[in-house]
Amino acid sequence: MNSFLFIFITFLVILPVNNGNPMQLTLLGSHHPVTASLREAIVLQCHLSPRTNVQNMEITWFRSHNSSYVHLYRSGKDHLERQQPEYQGRTEFLKDCIGDGKIGLKIFNVSLFDEGPYYCSVKNGSFQREATLDMKVAALGPAPLLSIEGYQDRGIRVVCRSSGWYPKPEVLWRELNGRLLSSLAKKDSQRNDGTFDVQADIILKGRSNLTCVIRNSLLGQEKESIIHITSESMKTVSSYSTFYELGFAIV
């Protein structure tokens, strides 16, 4: 009885592995974009179905059919002689699960250059399959910096700033009760590394507890800061602004 049970369990474990006609195999990528965090690592993955050992196959990751490869694995070894220069020293072919047909590529120190489509190719003699997936890159900046920058239109001008976001984020002003307020002005600029700096201004004409929210819609995450404007703050800024204007006129 024990011997029969062992044989039966072994049969169930081995059965899913494909040892038949390779033309029956399908290479699958991802139907949804994979999101990577800027300067972090990401694993791209495709797999053969039914699961099949790919250790002795040629596996290529590339960005387009007209470019050199991102990573090439062949005959059980990595071949990086013609690797794209932008990926040198930043890729690792994951070998732990190749016996199950899982083909993973780890990319380190993700940059905005890495964003876009990737192709995963498996070749064994005349047999060849190809799958695609799309990678998005995102970055969160720090919590916004709030500052009072003068008296304008009978109110206080409050400025919200943050930097290092990707893609360009949404900037919102929100009261404690959840009501959204319109910005007086918004502006953004793009850095050399492709990330965005953002700024939004608002005029407050009375005491308020106001939150500036910066939202990355791709990640579904946001950061916020709160500023408390009191009646005394309004008087102080108003008096300082009046003094400055009179002093400037006298000079």
Automatic annotation (TrEMBL):
<dbReference type="GO" id="GO:1903037">
    <property type="term" value="P:regulation of leukocyte cell-cell adhesion"/>
</dbReference>
<dbReference type="InterPro" id="IPR053896">
    <property type="entry name" value="BTN3A2-like_Ig-C"/>
</dbReference>
<dbReference type="InterPro" id="IPR013783">
    <property type="entry name" value="Ig-like_fold"/>
</dbReference>
<dbReference type="GO" id="GO:0005102">
    <property type="term" value="F:signaling receptor binding"/>
</dbReference>
<dbReference type="InterPro" id="IPR036179">
    <property type="entry name" value="Ig-like_dom_sf"/>
</dbReference>
<dbReference type="Pfam" id="PF07686">
    <property type="entry name" value="V-set"/>
</dbReference>
<dbReference type="GO" id="GO:0042110">
    <property type="term" value="P:T cell activation"/>
</dbReference>
<dbReference type="GO" id="GO:0050852">
    <property type="term" value="P:T cell receptor signaling pathway"/>
</dbReference>
<keyword id="KW-0812">Transmembrane</keyword>
<feature type="domain" description="Ig-like">
    <location>
        <begin position="142"/>
        <end position="228"/>
    </location>
</feature>
<comment type="similarity">
    <text>Belongs to the SKINT family.</text>
</comment>
<dbReference type="InterPro" id="IPR013106">
    <property type="entry name" value="Ig_V-set"/>
</dbReference>
<protein>
    <recommendedName>
        <fullName>Ig-like domain-containing protein</fullName>
    </recommendedName>
</protein>
<dbReference type="InterPro" id="IPR007110">
    <property type="entry name" value="Ig-like_dom"/>
</dbReference>
<feature type="domain" description="Ig-like">
    <location>
        <begin position="22"/>
        <end position="134"/>
    </location>
</feature>
<keyword id="KW-0393">Immunoglobulin domain</keyword>
<dbReference type="GO" id="GO:0001817">
    <property type="term" value="P:regulation of cytokine production"/>
</dbReference>
<keyword id="KW-0472">Membrane</keyword>
<dbReference type="InterPro" id="IPR050504">
    <property type="entry name" value="IgSF_BTN/MOG"/>
</dbReference>
<keyword id="KW-0325">Glycoprotein</keyword>
<feature type="signal peptide">
    <location>
        <begin position="1"/>
        <end position="20"/>
    </location>
</feature>
<keyword id="KW-1133">Transmembrane helix</keyword>
<dbReference type="GO" id="GO:0009897">
    <property type="term" value="C:external side of plasma membrane"/>
</dbReference>
<dbReference type="GO" id="GO:0050863">
    <property type="term" value="P:regulation of T cell activation"/>
</dbReference>
<keyword id="KW-0732">Signal</keyword>
<dbReference type="Pfam" id="PF22705">
    <property type="entry name" value="C2-set_3"/>
</dbReference>
<keyword id="KW-1015">Disulfide bond</keyword>
<dbReference type="InterPro" id="IPR003599">
    <property type="entry name" value="Ig_sub"/>
</dbReference>
